[in-house]
Design a protein that fits this description.
Length: 145
């Protein structure tokens, strides 16, 4: 299989996250990921996109960019937000903010678990500020077999 790139741009609204989640789930199925691994991929995508909507591009007029790359060995997903809304300057996922989230995460809390889930499930994960003042989150899943 040659490398393929899929680019999507969705409005910054959780309504659209479900549609992207369904698309990526179908893509994972076609790429022969196990049903469980496909569900893992969907969960990670849901967490990343929801964080992008809530913390990065919070106005519906903003957008969330997705770049999906597939090759014979990997499924890579890059989610990019614009950094507006309640995000501090330089993106919402600064190293200081990550430490704060980790320190305050607790089983009884409703928030702060998304990044932990991404780290636990994705084979590779990277988070960094982007040129738009938002955050780029890249995850990679290795294909089975």
């Amino acid at each position: 299989m040659e490398k393929a790139h899929i680019s999507l741009k969705i409005p910054s609204d959780v309504f659209y996250v479900d549609l992207v989640r369904a698309f990526v789930g179908k893509l994972a199925e076609r790429l022969k990921f196990s049903r469980k691994r496909g569900a893992d991929i969907q969960l990670v995508l849901d967490e990343i996109c929801t964080n992008a909507v809530k913390h990065g591009s919070s106005a519906v007029t903003d957008s969330i960019g997705l770049c999906i790359t597939v090759d014979k060995d990997t499924l890579e997903i890059l989610v990019q937000d614009t950094g507006s809304g309640d995000a501090p300057a330089g993106g919402w996922i600064t190293p200081e903010r990550l430490r704060e989230i980790e320190a305050n995460r607790s089983p009884g809390s409703e928030s702060g678990h998304g990044i932990f889930i991404v780290k636990a499930i994705a084979d590779v994960h990277e988070m960094q500020c982007n040129a738009a003042g938002g955050t780029d989150v890249r995850v990679i899943f290795y294909r089975e077999g």
